[in-house]
Amino acid sequence: LSHLMGSVFQLHDRSEVEVTAYAISASDGTAWRRRIEGTVENFVDVSSLSPYAVARKISDSGAHICVNLNGYTKGGKNEIFVYRPCAVQMSYMGFPATMGADFIDYLVSDAIVSPWELHGQCYTESLALMPHCYFCNDHRQVHMDISPPLYPKDVDLAEPRARIGLPTNASVIYACSNQLYKYDPDTFACWTRILRRVPGSVLWLLRFPPNGEARILRYAAELGAPPNSIIFTDVAGKTEHVNRSQYADVFLDTPMVNAHTTGCDVLWSGVPIVTLPMRRMASRVCASLCASMGLYEACVAHDLADYEEKAVRLGLDRTYRAALRREILMGRWTQPLFDTRRWVRDFERLMYKAWEIYTTGDTDDERGIKSFAIPPMPIPDVTEDEYRAKWSCDALLQAAVQAGKQPLLNQ
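Request: output the structure for the sequence above.
Response:
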């Protein structure tokens, strides 16, 4: 989460919104943690306190809305929310599914990830829907200097591909950098068919974890994948991972559990994605990412057969693939997905609406809540140079220093 939300807390309108971040885990000493500590308006380390003590501290602060960023993930302390420290309580980001609990009023999502028709079947919470993709990211601020070429044919990719263990003579490099647990047999069988239909293509996977490599290769051989068509490499650090994602030609998503953060990394690198949304929230996020880049028709399949056809077309039609890549790279500055400032403004409007519903009683729900969607709002265009000068990671950290915060920039 700190990779994705590092700038969010600082970009809020502090004349209208006061943000307090309660850290329920001890500091790990990373730059990601220190950055949030140094830029958020109020940072409170409650890692040593009991859930009741944390809830009491939040309640005593007078906060109106409390957002659970963990859910049922490692280290989460959902008991805090059982005590109802705030009048309105939301679940967001960390756990992509319903909490199934009456102490969470709203699930923050969007209309693609959580369509209305699935509400009663999949969620106990009311839905608070963002106007574009609900999934925020920090790529414009942190990874601004990763700028793949608009025309890859003008750049020799042989050397950087060889450096990380990829073949230099492949006709197309398909990739999936999702963890291996996200694979399912039907999708993997589809991948092997794609490799057979696109001569000279390879599939780049990660040792994530390493002990799955031998099993995957053995299963691929049983399914008739061409020899040496599946290449494994080691997992890389965050910046290297985002940078080297551009060496793939097409990213093949896993339908059962999508690429979420990885999907942002891949799109920022200019690589087209093929994804297939299912019913569960975790299986629909990548479709929303693509839609927020204007890529729904090109990248989002309606069934597995369509998934295969989209992937094969991208593999065989180099002109089409290059045009889509240019559209993605230009969309980094024109589409909503990577516009963190726009996301923060929309999130604030969502908070205001939830509080308005609570205070006015504009609902038939006995808890004083109801589902709603925030409409899109135009935001003036900002050039890349203007954005770099005002909202890059370095610019935001410098602003924090000038405001009296002292983030540890170089430690």
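DSSP finds 19 helices and twelve strands in the chain.
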